[in-house]
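Appendix B. One record, verbatim.
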Amino acid sequence: MGEKEKEMSFWEHLDEFRTVLFRSAVAVVVMMVTIFFFKSFVFDTIIFSPRSSDFVIYRWLNQLAAYKPWLSALSVDSFKIELINIEMSAQFFTHISVSFWLGFVVSVPFILYQVWTFVRPALYPNEKKSITLSFAFCSLLFLIGIFVGYFLVFPLTIKFLGTYQVSDWVVNQISLQSYISMFTWLILVMGLVFEMPVLVHLLSRFGIVTKKFLRKYRKHAFVALLFLAAVITPSGDAFTMTVVATPLYLLYEFSIFVCLNKKPQEVTQEEEGEKQG
């Protein structure tokens, strides 16, 4: 450990952690205020784009279906989901809440960097490299999950749920709160789910999981991921479920790749040797 880490007291650590929290909060507030003033772009161009068949993923599916006739089931009919608001203050508070959550999402890399600067002095040299890569991948995978949720999971979900009818007599009137709630839920869930490889890598460092364990229960994991995909996308069609389950399973295979294949005692002996050196 560094001299600074040895000399710092408990209260100094607490003060340092408070600084990290303050900087992270400031970053979220700054991004929230910035996003708040770009209302038209944020809502009209980003959030509300998937509610019509003009969205990019729908166009790609139609082009794919036209290119290969046997994929005609992928084509998306023309549709547009209309949103309604029934509460006086709902639109204003929706604007604030969306600004906050988007500000938080954009600030995640900075927040993770602040957490890294806090824990770095307590790490040994052999640990810093691994943990640094973990923090970097954590930010990258979170953002990739956000993009997958926005461009794939959310559009397919609202297309199914927003246009589904038990009878022609029942007209769908989707509330603004329902749409925004589904948007934030699916986007954040996909961002968190994509952290699976980082979590597995850290667990493997402590000897909790190994490559052998993950390979042994691969079939069980596949079933569990199918169930998770069904929960994330409550549409009943097999295509949407497969589209969501595929990246989740690829994440599981990638988790096996990044998982350490060391027993707890082997890791301990190596780290002790480096610490003494």
